[in-house]
């Protein structure tokens, strides 16, 4: 395991990654987490905000008074899901199309509005080896690079907010692997769907670490999180019902198993940690943290088998040196500075 700066940096990460006893837990819902928080006059953005936990995130932010911008690849599906919600704006965008990301960001920036909350929620999971138009592995391109480009393009609006939060929806799946910097796109190593997924989720965590380090001087703080295990359309796209039953996520009747004590959650529970990271006053002055169950997660000790742990965050995913390396690689792959 790589530890940036040796034992000193590892001990520093341990002090940061400690629960703060938020008062919430695995069974808390997004509605419970946001209760009493007023977002009137605030502008939020949720990628994938029209399906799964993204839709629940949009609903919660909207319920607190925020205007919510939802970038959408499927405009018809988004319009149907968000029908009747005032102050929700649906704008076309595809995370796999760099030109579409730039056009979307420019459209938002031209409005002159600040952006107070950005939830990078959209993602794909465990598909077969596919590549985008640049030749990049699809999960890394969608889950990380698309959000990297979007966030960088929106930095002027985030900086003008006078206090903004960026939330990266990652996963405990990050435990499977660090980012393999010498072959992120699986040009030379054997492709495994869940390994590629895990790498993209580690990238989400590292991105939050790097963004927070770079932008806290502009009062932008970033967080990443594990939402919990849910049977969503994204999960079912490439994973069969039989595989989900074997994993204990579907019961014998084919219904999703809800057991927050084992991090198997409803969509409302799954959106809670995103909402907590985006809005909780308890996180004031903090950032670069990985969260779970609407609280800060603990660091998994070195040499410990992740499967034996009740979630947490792997040291390689919050390593500041790896976060900086990922940022530089992301600039190179996207052509952004």
Molecular shape: globular
Our count of helices gives: 13
Uncertain stretches of 5 or more adjacent residues: 1-5
**What is the subunit arrangement here?**
single chain
Radius of gyration: 18 Å
Q: Identify the strand order in the major beta sheet.
A: 3-2-1-4-5-6-7-8
CATH homolog superfamily? NAD(P)-binding Rossmann-like Domain
The share of residues in helices is 25-40%
First-to-last CA distance: 29 Å
> Biggest β-sheet, characterized?
8 strands, mixed
What is the CATH fold-level name?
Answer: Rossmann fold
CATH domain class name: Alpha Beta
Quote the average pLDDT: 94
Describe the structure.
The protein has 337 residues and is of the alpha/beta class. The chain has a single domain, classed as Rossmann fold (3-Layer(aba) Sandwich). The chain contains 13 helices and 8 strands. Strands 3-2-1-4-5-6-7-8 form an 8-stranded mixed beta sheet, with helices on both faces. Helix 5 (98-110) runs parallel beside helix 6, helix 6 packs parallel to helix 8 and helix 8 packs across helix 13. The radius of gyration is 18 Å and the shape is globular. It starts with 5 loop residues before the first helix and ends with a helix. The model is unreliable at 1-5 (pLDDT under 50).
């Amino acid at each position: 395991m790589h530890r940036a700066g040796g034992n000193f940096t590892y001990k520093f990460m341990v002090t940061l990654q400690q629960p703060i006893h938020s008062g919430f837990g695995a069974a808390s819902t997004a509605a419970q987490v946001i209760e009493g928080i007023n977002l009137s006059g605030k502008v939020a953005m949720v990628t994938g905000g029209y399906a799964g936990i993204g839709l629940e995130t949009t609903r919660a932010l909207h319920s607190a008074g925020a205007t919510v911008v939802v970038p959408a690849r499927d405009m018809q599906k988004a319009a149907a899901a968000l029908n009747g919600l005032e102050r929700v704006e649906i704008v076309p965008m595809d995370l796999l199309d760099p030109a579409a990301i730039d056009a979307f960001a420019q459209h938002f920036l031209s409005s002159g509005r600040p952006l107070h909350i950005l939830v990078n929620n959209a993602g794909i999971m465990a598909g077969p080896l596919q590549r985008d138009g640049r030749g990049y592995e699809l999960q890394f391109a969608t889950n990380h690079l698309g959000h990297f480009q979007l966030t960088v393009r929106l930095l002027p609006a985030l900086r003008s907010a006078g206090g903004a939060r960026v939330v990266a929806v990652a996963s405990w799946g990050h435990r499977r692997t660090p980012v393999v910097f010498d072959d992120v796109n699986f040009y030379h190593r054997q492709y495994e769907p869940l390994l590629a997924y895990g790498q993209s989720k580690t990238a989400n965590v590292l991105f939050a670490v790097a963004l927070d380090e770079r932008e806290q001087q502009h009062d932008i703080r970033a967080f990443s999180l594990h939402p919990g295990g849910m049977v969503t359309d994204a999960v079912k796209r490439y994973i069969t019902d039989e595989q989900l039953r074997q994993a204990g996520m579907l019961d014998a009747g084919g219904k999703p198993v809800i057991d927050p004590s084992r991090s198997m959650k409803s969509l409302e529970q799954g959106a809670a940690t995103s909402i907590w990271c985006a809005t909780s006053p308890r996180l004031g002055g903090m950032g670069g943290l990985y969260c779970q169950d609407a609280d800060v997660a603990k660091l998994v000790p070195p040499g410990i088998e992740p499967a034996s742990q009740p979630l947490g965050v792997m040291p390689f995913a919050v390593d500041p040196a790896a976060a900086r390396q990922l940022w530089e690689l992301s600039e190179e792959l996207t052509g952004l500075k």
